Amino acid sequence: MKRICVFAGSNPGVNPAFEQVAQELGRELVARDLDLVYGGSNMGLMGRVANAVLAAEGKAIGVMPTGLFRGEIVHTGLTDLHEVGTMHERKAMMNDLSDGFIALPGGYGTFEEIFEVISWGQIGIHSKPIGLLNVAGFYTPLMEMVNHATLAGFIPAMQGDLVICESDPAVLLDRMRDYKPPVKLNKWSELEK
């Protein structure tokens, strides 16, 4: 792995641990000589992880649609900033630039981004590791929902390993480094019969 895409909230959240772990993740990326790829904002957890990477003299690469370019949002101190036309182009470029994905706590946008790369992994568009940084149990309800969907027959059991969930950035990155994609990616249970 050379570059990790981080999806994160454009707000900092109410728990100080969210910001602390975002900064810890940024420092850990640099310690492992991994570049950050992210949405390009200076706001919220997005800005915190980028600032931590830059403060540790790492590389932070932003990808932002032109429509979101506003002085108070776009991070002007990045190593590289790619301007794209749409959110679809943003996500495609972030995927192309990255060797793995991590979701910090966030809202609708973060959920949508991480679920898209999980879906892409499920159908074989990529075989990159995908991690949830479960700060203060933030992603525990989501993992319970994934387990519920698995038990209900909507997610094949062998695909539960598509997502790595850890509370410590170093442990998460270790597991992502050692990730082996599921051997069988058939998502259609009816084809098993």
What does this structure look like?
The chain is an alpha/beta fold. It is built from six helices and seven strands. It has a seven-stranded parallel beta sheet, with helices on both faces. Helix 1 (16-31) packs parallel to helix 2 (44-55). The radius of gyration is 16 Å and the shape is globular. The chain starts with a strand and ends in a 16-residue tail after the last helix.
Could you tell me the radius of gyration in angstroms?
Answer: 16 Å
> What is the residue-mean pLDDT, rounded to a whole number?
92
> What sequence of helices (H) and strands (E) makes up the elements?
EHEHEEHEHEHEH
What share of the residues does DSSP label as strand, in percent? 15-25%
- Estimated structural class: alpha/beta
Q: What is the topological layout?
A:
Layout: E1 3-7, H1 16-31, E2 35-38, H2 44-55, E3 60-65, E4 80-84, H3 87-97, E5 101-103, H4 108-122, E6 130-133, H5 140-151, E7 163-166, H6 169-177
Parallel strand pairs: 1-2, 1-5, 2-3, 3-4, 5-6, 6-7
Helix pairs in contact: 1-2
Spell out the key features of this protein.
single chain, 193 residues, alpha/beta, 7-stranded parallel beta sheet, 6 helices, 7 strands, 39% helix, globular
Produce a short descriptive summary.
This protein has 193 residues and is of the alpha/beta class.
